[in-house]
Specification:
Structural class: mainly beta
CATH topology: Immunoglobulin-like
Distance between the termini: 28 Å
Radius of gyration: 16 Å
Low-confidence stretches: 25-29, 31-35
Largest sheet: 7 strands, antiparallel
Helix content: under 10%
Number of strands: 11
Mean pLDDT: 77
Number of helices: 1
CATH class: Mainly Beta
Order of helices and strands: EEEEEHEEEEEE
Strand content: 35-45%
CATH architecture: Sandwich
């Protein structure tokens, strides 16, 4: 069983600790070459954070067991582009990079990660009490989906189906 912990001890950022259990040969698997496209067939965790809860724009962060991280800001849904007919618009903001910190640990039958994303003034604003954000966490095991915090029935990129974080 995989475990997820959220922590609010540091009010200036969001911290998550994730432990992924019951894996075969976790210490022998080293994934592909490092780079933005290499992690998507590895054993990874994907985080989706819809900070303004508009069900359209959100942070997407992928992390593999070696600590290779890919982050992107999705500015609008691909579906919105198709509906508008404006295919010139880019659906992601390639200039955005999360201000974050990451640590991973590989055990004999599990791997774990601790991830911290700092709040900022643009895409990841510091929440106030009663702030609601969309959120989902997905574990993809070597290209095959295993677990989702909140099940989306199409793609992980389904902000209408994200779970809810309520800050107190």
């Amino acid at each position: 069983m995989d475990r997820f912990y959220g922590d609010d001890a540091e009010p200036e950022n969001l911290v998550a600790k994730i432990i992924l259990e019951e894996q075969e040969d976790v210490d022998q698997y080293e994934g592909g070459p490092v780079g933005d496209e290499s992690i998507w067939t590895d054993d990874i965790i994907e985080l989706f954070i819809d900070t303004n809860f508009n069900h359209s724009s959100y942070a997407h962060i992928g992390i593999n067991n070696l600590g290779v991280r890919v982050d992107e800001w999705i500015a609008c849904l691909r579906q919105e582009m198709f509906e508008s007919g404006d295919f010139r618009a880019d659906f992601s903001d390639e200039t955005w990079r999360a201000s974050d910190d990451l640590a991973t640990h590989i055990g004999s039958d599990h791997w774990a990660l601790e991830y911290r994303i700092d709040f900022d003034d643009t895409n990841i604003p510091s929440p106030t009490p009663r702030t609601v954000q969309g959120f989902n966490l997905i574990r993809v095991y070597r290209g095959q989906e295993y677990n989702q915090w909140v099940r989306t029935y199409s793609s992980g990129h389904s902000p209408d189906d994200f779970g809810v974080l309520l800050f107190q």
